[in-house]
């Protein structure tokens, strides 16, 4: 399914809005096309009010945002940015969207947001229901602890962009596995104190949205055995069955590209 620009244009609040809109249009024409996100074969939202998520199907950071949008029922269209084969993130067209030249980026409410945790917090602030944060200060702190371990302690050291800085793939793999294992051990200890049905009690939170994508990459991309972390692995297997992760799973996204 395709959309013309007449049905999905975005008005940006900026003095150079026409210039930026032109750049967005140009990039869209250069890209492989857009996808309309669906749930149960039903298109989400109308073209004129749908947010635009610039993402890569296998990116854990993109999956966090995709899952948050889905969980909150926010209409969105996903546009694929190939960060592996064609390096679309390094084009000047995409730099106009995200100066850091990485995914994800989200255009919503007449603003462009970058950095996955900033984006999901914005979605939580502007669409508080259904909530992705616990009600009490202590539980919110527990959630943030888990998020930080993933976002600061695992994801950057698992990033595929690091590979070119090692002489051999073996060196890169050894480095990544060592630091990911350290992070998973920390997660195991923390989750033993906070977990219920989900990472923090019996409510899906931002911690779950951080955990699942990162573990998926650890297992599928880096061939890590997470069974030695029983709390982590049990939660991971259980969470993969939740609709928020089934509907936004990388393989599901890839099949619609």
From TrEMBL:
GO BP annotations listed: glutathione metabolic process; L-phenylalanine catabolic process; L-tyrosine catabolic process
Catalytic activity: 4-maleylacetoacetate = 4-fumarylacetoacetate
Keyword Cytoplasm included in the entry's annotation: no
EC supergroup of this enzyme: isomerase
Record carries keyword Nucleotide-binding: no
Keywords, comma-separated and alphabetical: Phenylalanine catabolism, Tyrosine catabolism
Residue ranges annotated for the GST N-terminal domain, each copy included: 49-131
Cofactor annotation: glutathione
PROSITE patterns: GST_CTER, GST_NTER
Pathway annotation: Amino-acid degradation; L-phenylalanine degradation; acetoacetate and fumarate from L-phenylalanine: step 5/6
GO cellular component, one term: cytoplasm
Molecular-function annotations in GO: glutathione transferase activity; maleylacetoacetate isomerase activity
Residue ranges of domain GST C-terminal in the record: 136-257
Similarity annotation: Belongs to the GST superfamily. Zeta family.
Name this protein carries in UniProt: maleylacetoacetate isomerase
